[in-house]
Structure formats: C-alpha cells, structure tokens
Batch of 2 targets.
Target 1
Amino acid sequence: MTIPPPVSLAAPPRVHSHADPAALVAACGAELAALTARCVAQGGQCHIALAGGGTPRDLYRSLARPPLAERMPWSALHLYWGDERCVPADHPESNQRMVRETLLDHVPLPAANIHPMPVELPPAAAAARYTATLAAGLPRDAAGRLRFDLVLLGLGSDGHTASLFPPELAQDLHGTPLCRSGTQPQSGQARLSIALELINDARQIWFLVTGAAKVPVVRGILEAAPAARGWPAAWVRPRDGELVWHLDRAAAGSALDLIAPLDR
Ligand code: 6PG
C-alpha cells in the first residue's frame, strides 16, 4: 500500500523549544496542572493517557511534589497508559512500574482512577480488555467520540510513538480497536498501544522530546519530509484538538528555524 501524506492539521502545532530538560519539565508541569484544573472545572473530571519510556519520568516526579502535587485535583483525575510493554507490572521495563514509582506511589489518586493495561493477560486478551476499559471510562463528545483530555507521547528516533511502530503503520491507518497488541520490531517484545485514531480524537496531544538523537525525526515531521510518511508519529494529527511539541533545545536542534521566534 502506498502511504499517502499525513492529512493536514486542522491547525498548525504549537512548538515550544525549552532551554533544557529541566525547563521542559517545569513548563509542562505547570501547563498540565492548569489543563487538569480547567478540565475538572468544566466537566468534573480529567482523563489523561500517559507516555512511557524515559523522557516523561521527571515530569511525573514533578507532579508528585510541591507545588504541583497540591494543585492537582487528584480525586477528579483519571490516568491511563498510552502503551505498555507486555511484561509483569513489577518488571524493570514496565511503564506501569515506572509511573507508580515516579508518581502514583506518592499522590492521593484513588485506585479506581488508575487504569493500567492488564499485562497479566495474554497480549490479544489484554488489548481487548483495555479496549473495553477505554470504552467504559472515557467521556464521549456530542458526536459520540471517545476523547482523552490529554495524551502524552514520546518519540522514538525511528518515528514510532506510544507502541505504534513503522512496520505496523498500514494496519494503524486502516483503523484498529481502541487498544491493540503489537510487537517492538527490534526486540520482538510484545506491546500494547492505544490506537492512532483514539490519539487523534484527543482534545490535546503533547509530544515530549529531549536529546539530539531525536533531531532528524523531529525535523522530518515538522517539515513534513517524504520519509515521515512511514513514521507513525507523523500521523498524530488531531482531528479538532491541539497538537503541542515540547522539545528541549537539543531535540529542537536544527529545527529551531521552523519554530516561531516567540517559542525559541
Ligand atoms: C515506550 C514509549 C515509547 C517512548 C519512545 C521514546 O513504552 O517506550 O511509549 O513510545 O515514548 O520510545 O522513549 P524515550 O522517552 O525513552 O526516549
């Protein structure tokens, strides 16, 4: 299947280049606390899908300590995972373990508001179970679409995001269940990921990207380079939500000329 170019964004993404990872964490933490408070004030709850991997760890840690920990409306916040490695929940590679260690073990989020992917099940059954969890838990808009208030995403240097990897892109573009199982192409590790379509229905989508290794993929996506057509991250195109790139200066790299001066 020849993959068409990603559909154009309803609105251009907001791209922020932060001086360093610590500045990115401080800005994202403050913006996330404000977004959560707005959501709860408007709708009574806030539903966020968390990114895995290494980049968001310090952001999650910052939410678990003052001043943000006191500002977050924990009882009205629901946390989900955007993707998971199919390993036991206490495994060193588990995204669930990472979020529990950096955030959940330190804040008064009710257990009923924590929605980990059920890695105790075989991958296909886990994906089906989480699809049901998402369908039951997420709010629907007037058109009946299930919508996260915020999806946090990391970015792989191969253009993957969540656990949506390039070899499986054609399947993702044709539509999948809300959560699907898949495979990390280098390691063969079984993975779970929320669907591209569900990501694109979110009201806000934030990419959190640090480090010079990500410059080629960041630039390729921001410039809509032809190579980006094979990258799942390039297909993160909110239908009517907002896409925000939070980059540190190292990841922004040569893409700085693409970023509006006020955000440099
Ligand atoms: C995962 C993530 C994955 C990650 C990127 C970036 O479970 O690994 O969801 O998509 O966000 O690989 O990882 P780093 O933040 O560690 O660079």
Target 2
Amino acid sequence: MLLEGLRGTLNQSALEPSGPQAAKIASLWWFAFITASVVYLLTMGALWWAARRARRRETRGETLDDAAAEPKMTRGVTWATAATVVILLVFLVTDLSIGRTLSPVPDPHPLTIEVTGHQWWWEVAYADTSPHGRFTTANEIHVPVGRPILFVLQSQDVIHSIWVPNLAGKKDLIPGYTQSWWFQADTAGLYRGQCAEFCGLQHAKMALQVIAEPPDQYTRWVSQQRQPAVNATDPTASRGREVFLTGPCAMCHSIEGTSAGSHVGPDLTHLASRRTIAAGTLPNTRGALAGWIVDPQRIKPGTHMPPNQLKPQDLDALLTYLQTLK
Ligand code: CUA
C-alpha cells in the first residue's frame, strides 16, 4: 500500500502550517492574536486602574473637579484613539502585503491540477501535455512534497470554496470563471480540506484529502492512476461489471477501459485506491459502499445520486467489482 506509514493522522489546522503559503497565513494570525491580546490586557488594566481610583476617591469623600479633569480626559481619549488608528493601519498594511505575497505562482512552472467543484464533491483532473497522460479522480489530491502545485479552479454549479488549512488559505470556485490557487507541501502527510462557502444542503459533507508524499511515491501513484481499470477475471467481479455497465451506475459515472464514460458523478476508474467515499463522508469499506449505493439519500440527503434497489446478489457482485478497481 502506497500510503503505509502515512495512515492515522489527518491534519486540519491553520496553526500547524506544512508549506510556505500556510506559514505566512499562520504568522499573520499570530501577529493579530498577540497584538489583540496586548491591546485587550492594556484596556482591561486601564479600566481596573480607573475603577480603583474612583473607588478610592469615593471612600475618601472627595469630589471630582470637572474643570481640572477635563483636559486630562481629552488627552487620554486622543492618545487612545490615535493608538487604535495606528494599530488598525498596521493590521491593514500587514494583511495586504501578506495577501500580495500569496498570489504569484512561483517559477519553475509548477505541476497543474484542475479542481472542479460540484454539489457536493470535488473533481480532480491532472493536466498533462499528452492526452493519454491526463487522468481524473475525485475528492483526493495526491501531490509530491517540496514542489509548488498550481490549481485551476472552476465550478459546475454554485460557488464553492477550497480550503486546506495546513497548506493554504481559501479560494472560491466560481461558475463560469476560472481562478488559480497554489500551494506547496513541505512535509509529507495527510491533510483534510473542506468546502468553505455555503453551497447547499450538503455543504458540510464536502470534504477532500490532500495526500502529500515523497516524489517517487507520487510518481508511482500517477502511473497507477493513468492505467485503465483492471479487467475483472473473477466470475463474481465480471458479473458486477455487467451490473455496473447495464444498470443506472453507468449513466453518471465513468470507468476508463469500459464503455462507462459519463462525467456527471465522480470517475470510478480507481475507486478502490481512495480512502473515503462521498467526499470524505464515509470510509471506503465494503459495508459503507453498500449503504451508499443502496440509499445515498439517507447518508447525504439532497445528493444527486438516486437510491438503487439492486437484487442482493447483484449488489454483492457490484461491490466485489468496485473493490477490484485499485
Ligand atoms: Cu461546496 Cu460548500
């Protein structure tokens, strides 16, 4: 298994950056957090001091001489206002300058991956100069470590937003408009991402996983993904393949190397190599797959996949077939 050794920890934290983009964002976060904390402590300190002074004056029976106190108060308020304006300006300038350093895609020309948002899953296509080098997967993005990756973002339906906190900030996927986004993963690992723009009923169940791996492991994964689906030899799997190709599955899904070529739903050519199904909703196990095929509406109400009432032996054969799609 390619991912052996990486299994287990799924990272999702903007404060544990694993690449240059996320590191800049984390430093901005810490700067804002520390500044805001200092301002808060100073304000609370001043409040406490003023309250204590007023109480002391009260116990001593003194009254405040308004005429004498006014200029002092005016000076205090002026200084506090000036400090607030300066702090806000510093925030603005830091925010803008960090934002500017995030956008330019670095040279040399990075690896290009096209991500298309759908209600509610992610289509992931690996661009290549030759058509047979291109391949499509879903909800999992494998990347080599230490190399900038350029993403070309689009949407099929409504506005989505891609966010992988350990690697980069958010970027919207807008219908009819192409945006670019990039990150570099410096540490091998498993990073969870999430759609960050409300996009309908199942917005919360629109997750993705980024698998950052050493270059040789990544290359092996790419050559495996470029292969068409293995031809089922086992009789049950062959029967399952027939169920797939003659039933409703083939109306929406594609499997390279078969006659199924629809791109309404995720490409299933290497379904069994993926860790999860239904955009990070369920683990990719036989049981979860069965539940999903039979009644996806129970798991993700509103999803575009209809329920499939298959005969038990057909479902069993279909599951066996799907599990051969490594
Ligand atoms: Cu897609 Cu929220």
